[in-house]
Description:
DNA polymerase, domain 1; globular
Amino acid sequence: MWWRSRRGLRELDLLLLPFVEDIYPTLEPDQKAVYLRLLDNEDPELLVWFTGRGSPLDGDLIAMIDCIRAHGRPVS
Length: 76
């Protein structure tokens, strides 16, 4: 999962890699599935969502983004 979470943007790596190391193993199977769906999105779109300049339409993805943000550093 670590390699799947490794992205092309450093800002995303700073959020996703610590999350996948520390929190992902503790998630329920349905939450892990949401995380995988999140990773299916392109890096520029993820960056917009994590910086708060936009959000996905899917409420489960919003909740996962909030969970990841709560664990990591702010992305600017």
